[in-house]
Structure formats: structure tokens, C-alpha cells
Amino acid sequence: MAKHGKNYRGASQKVEAKLYTPKAALALVKELATAKFDETVEASIRLGVDTRKADQNIRGSISLPNGTGKKVRVAVFAEGAKADEAKAAGADLVGSDDLVAQVQAGNIDFDAAIATPNMMSKVGRLGRVLGPRGLMPNPKLGTVTMDVEKMVKELKAGRVEYRADRYGICHVPLGKVSFEPQALLENYAALVTEIVRVKPSSAKGKYIKSITVSSTMGPGVKVDPTIVRDFMEE
Question: At what angle do helices 181-197 and 22-32 cross, to 10 degrees?
Fold first, then answer.
């Protein structure tokens, strides 16, 4: 087990062994963030699903109302008018065979990728490179699309992907420690509401088992998972 530093241990002592309301939990996360950089605030949501079953694979994306505070570099695999549309929308990298060759050479200078459907025969060859990095365009996530402009703008504005790992846990960024408390709450609201929305009909028992919020360098703070829709009025 990794040893934590003095600041982390000191912060951990301020976290009580209880379930906090979302508002109180996020306020505490902000208070306990002591790093010299603007730490990311993340939610870890443990779900009662069996991801070995295809119908219980929780995966999707959502546009957080206040973004993530991170500058997102977007690559678009497109040609002709759609390539022009991507450039006009603010895409950082746009190309066809040239962009495919760039990625094959190991030059991956982007955080998200979009492809038009007709490009997938070429982009499909990049699966071994982009897949492990979570960068492969996927129609289920809306990143294989003809509406290039909309998706570029959404990714730039703070669209995030959620995906339950083999333990059934979704790790999703909520924003930065520098965000106003209300902004973090609104992002938390959007995320949890979305996770509830995509609950598989085949999932049995308790669906949201636990929720923990933390900053990059800070301790985890447990949130009451039963407080979903009424916490904005705390």
C-alpha cells in the first residue's frame, strides 16, 4: 500500500466516518485540497451491476452543465465538407489518411476523437492504438456521427464519458477545485441523474451502492447515495 504524505494524512483526519450530503461532501473536498495546482474533483460511483453481462455494461457520455475545467483537444477524422465543418467548430486536428498515419506513427496529441461514419473503415485499423486509451470513436457515445459541429462543441464544453469498470465502479471528473460549490453540485446532479437513468432493467438489488468524491491529491469523502434529486435545496 502506498504511503501518503503529511498533508493527505492531516486531511483524512478531518473526514468523519459518515455519509455526507452532496453539498457538504463537495464543500469538504474543496476545503481539503491543498496541492499547489488546481486539482480535479472526481466522483467514484459503485454500482450493483455485473459488467461481465452485456446488458449490464454501463457506458455512455454526458455534457456536464459547467464543463470540467479542462482544455480538451479534439481530433476529427473527416473529409471534404465535414472536415471544413470540424475546423470551423474548433477541432484541433482534422484529417483523413494523413491523420490515420499520424496516429499509427504514435503521434496522439488529442484527448477525444470523432469520426464520420464513412471514415470508420480507416479509423477501425487504429483500434489497438486508440482503444486502450479510451479514444476510439464509438457510435454509442455519439463520437461516430455526421453532426460533427455539435459533437466538437460538446466535447470542448465538457462532455465526459462514464464507464463501469470490472468492479462496477464509474470514475468521472466533476470539475476543478477552483469551481464554485454550486457549479460542482450542478455537475454532480447531472451525473448522478444520468447514471440512474441508464440503470439496466436486469440489474437486481441495490443499484447505486456507494458514491465517493475526492480531489486529485485529497482523501475520499463518502456521499449519501439516496440523496439524488432533492440535494440542490439543502
Answer: 130
- pLDDT tens string for the chain (234 positions)? 455 666 676 667 778 889 999 999 999 999 999 889 999 999 999 999 998 898 898 988 898 999 999 889 999 999 999 999 999 999 999 999 999 999 999 999 999 999 999 999 999 999 999 998 889 999 988 999 999 999 999 999 888 889 999 999 999 999 999 999 999 999 999 999 999 999 999 888 899 999 999 999 999 999 999 886 544 444
Render 166-227 in DSSP notation, one character per residue: TTSEEEEEEEETTS-HHHHHHHHHHHHHHHHHT--TT--S-SEEEEEEEETTSPPEEE-TT-
Rounded Cα distance between 85 and 52, Å, is 39
Contact predicate 69/45, CB 8 Å: no
Angle at which helices 80-89 and 148-157 pack, to 10 degrees? 30
**Beta carbons within 10 angstroms of residue 65's beta carbon:** 12
Q: Are residues 101 and 211 in contact, defined by beta-carbon separation less than 8 angstroms?
A: no
* Residue 76 DSSP SS3: strand
